[in-house]
Amino acid sequence: MKKIYLLPLALGLGLATQSCNDFLDTKPSEIYSPDLVWGSAANVEAFIMNYYGTASGWYRDPATWDYRFSNNMVGCRASCPWEAQGYVEPSDNYAGLNGRFSYIRACNMIIEQCSNSEVLDPSEKAKYSAMGKLLRAMCYYDFARKTGRFVWVGEVLDNDSNFDIPLTSSIVESYSLVLKDLREAIPDLTTARLAGAPNKNFALALLSEVCLTAAAYTNDSPQLQQNGVSLYQEAINAVNQISGASIDANYGDIFNENGAYSSTDILLAYYWDELYTSFPGTNMINLVANVTDEKLRQANCSPLWNNAPEHLFEAWLDYTPSQNLVDAYLVIDEQDGQAKPLYETSQWLNNVTEVGEDEIFEVVDHWDNDVVYKGFILNDPSGANGNISDLMYNNRDARFDASILYDQSTFYGQTIAMFSYGNMTRWSTNQGHLSTHVPYTNYATRKAVYTDLPELYADYHTAYHQVAMRYSRALLNKAEAQLRLGDVAGAVATFNQTRTIHGQLPASTATTLAEAWEDYKRERRVELFWESDWYFSLLRWGMYGGEANHGLAPQSTIPELTEDAYLIEINRDRNAAFIGVCQYQNNQRSFNPDNMYLFPIDQSLINNNPAVSQSDQNPGW
Q1: Element containing residue 101 per DSSP (H, E)
Q2: Angle at CA 430, nearest 5°, toward 426 and 432?
Q3: For the ranges 45-59, 210-224, 265-279, 427-441, which has the lowest average pLDDT?
Q4: How far is CA 513 from the centre of its chain?
């Protein structure tokens, strides 16, 4: 397929700036010619788009937010991440507060140069200045959601400028600056849709999320409201203004080559050219297992692959979906047609008996350190009414099959066996140990893996893309705002759009606020898996408290961040299985509400900026 790209990769403008000795990194000597950059609309746009590639990266880092800070994913080659165990230090620099000043300088240059340009026509001046403000808002919102306060640089600094700039005085001030940039930018942004380019729709979707986070951390401060309009209502209004976007009927294609450029759900994504991108340069390298026929023979695992290329599955799997995530995907009850958690469906209750560890270990292979959370045995071991995998995985939310590889899945023309000693399980190589690039939880990821490669192997070049914002996500933002305003019926109708179209589930019939929050949180988890959303949403809901966080007071602990991570083990006869507690510290997950609602202010910023002292550090750090 021929791809269309926005910008030449080598423009000859020298799109970076040299850093200086000052801690702010804001007095560079440019290595491009200003006359060249600002001398034409085409070059201005090229300069701007280079920085959008940088900015989008802060919103498409699932390896951090779906793995390092949550239990959506479990490590296959390492113990539970330190971050998930609560070991975060001020020196860890998760926010990058002291490392983006050359980027911020570029944003300010765009705004200043375009506003004062004698080359651009009035519409171009307005559009490019707005794009500069959107860029700046993307950077500072990422700071705000992580640390609450930041060093605001709102102009192009020169040798005579004061570089001893303090942090914003409060979270309210921080969000007032981000919201001002977004509100001013949106009217002048283009509505045209071009792959890789942010437009008005993206900015509106981003505004809806900024409003939610700002409201959560400031209690919907009147100082942030325009004309007395609640931030929640502003979020709703922003989503309602999005035009020309829609929910893509084929959920899986949004994240692979089939819908990369055509999906009307994508509001912003980042694209890699296949000419310059190899398989290891994409997220796929860490999502695909390394299970060759040779390794399967050595591990006494089967079945072998059917007429497969030698390197069909030979990647560097790092993280694998947890049973916790899998349990979030609802199942349609075969008797009443309602969508329910698996363990509440009639087909499960009528055919499966729950048993203890001793009994399940008699019929299911296990590692020496396995601890059983729940064990299950078919009432009829012959499987006349379906094997246990059928009962677990049939009739699921359609996004489950589009996102997760599980026992009896079909992938790249192969049948995936995820029972004990199957062809893609934790047994597949070096039995009983990590560091083997095989699925420790006995699940793997289909979402975000392209389907058109000859082999999932290092030698192949491929195009690739990562989604930073979707229309479906904006709709869920709207539903959340409606819940916060007490509009249960409106919220349920809004999130039912993704539930029924992408999930192909019956609509939620929630009528109380508690029921609606339960269904909404589940919906957001499965819709936005591997899209860098879950951790930040949990923080927001914890700040709300009440129905949004299990009835707890605002800013309490967050149960989802403290629960053990789980795996599945199915026996080869597929008539018994157990859910086990993942070891390697995955049963030691922690969340401290006294400090983890905000990351620490970077210690390097405190050490190097005379205007910031240790007393400015966030509480608890």
Answers
A1: helix 101-115
A2: 55
A3: 427-441
A4: 26
| In contact, 602 and 90? CB cutoff 8 Å | yes
Of 99, 94, 96, which is closest to residue 69 (Cα–Cα)?
94
Task: Give the containing element (helix H, strand E) for 605.
Answer: helix 603-608
In three-state form (DSSP H/G/I as H, E/B as E, the rest C), the secondary structure along 203-250 is HHHHHHHHHHHHHHHHCCCHHHCECCECHHHHHHHHHHCCCCCCCCCC
Strands 313-314 and 456-457: parallel
pLDDT at 533: 98
Q: Are 60 and 283 in contact (CB under 8 A)?
A: no
**576 near 363, Cβ under 8 Å?**
yes
Nearest to 301 by CA among 365, 356, 362, 347: 365
**Residue 180, both tokens:** 């001002």
Instruction: Check whether 8 has a pLDDT greater than 70.
Output: no
Which amino acid, one-letter code, is at 218?
T
Instruction: Assess contact for 548 and 519: CB atoms under 8 A.
Output: no
Contacts of 384 (CB under 8 A, 6+ apart): none
Is 272 within 8 Å of 282 (Cβ atoms)? yes
576-581, strands of its sheet edge to edge: 352-355, 371-378, 576-581, 566-570
Looking at residue 6, its pLDDT comes to 37
In angstroms, the CA 355 to CA 368 distance is 19
> Beta strand pairing status for 414-415 and 404-405?
unpaired
Let me know: does 504 contact 397? Beta carbons within 8 Å: yes
Q: How far apart, in whole angstroms, are the C-alpha atoms of residue 442 and residue 365?
A: 13
SS3 content of the chain, % helix, strand, coil (to 5): 40, 10, 50
Answer for the pair 404, 445: CB distance below 8 angstroms, yes or no: yes
The answer to whether the CB of 508 falls within 8 A of the CB of 521 is no
Residue 221 in contact with residue 463, Cβ under 8 Å? no
Q: Are 501 and 294 in contact (CB under 8 A)?
A: no
- Helix spans in 327-449 (H): 346-349, 357-361, 388-393, 398-403
340 CB-side CA count, 13 A:
15
Residue range 97-132, pLDDT digits in tens: 888 999 999 999 999 999 999 999 999 999 999 999
Q: Is the distance from CB of 550 to CB of 369 less than 8 angstroms?
A: no
The number of CA neighbours under 13 Å toward the Cβ of 283 is 25
The span from the CA of 273 to the CA of 463, in Å, is 5
The string of pLDDT tens digits covering residues 327-340 is 999 999 999 999 99
3-state SS assignment for residue 359: helix
Query: Shortest CA distance to 601 belongs to which of 4, 93, 68, 19?
Result: 93
What is the value of pTM for the model shown? 0.95
The answer to whether the CB of 444 falls within 8 A of the CB of 288 is yes
Q: For the residues of 135-202, what is the DSSP string, one character each?
A: HHHHHHHHHHHHHS--B---S---TTS---PPBPSSHHHHHHHHHHHHHHHGGGS-----TT---HHH
Evaluated on CA atoms 321, 325, 326, 329, the torsion sign reads: negative
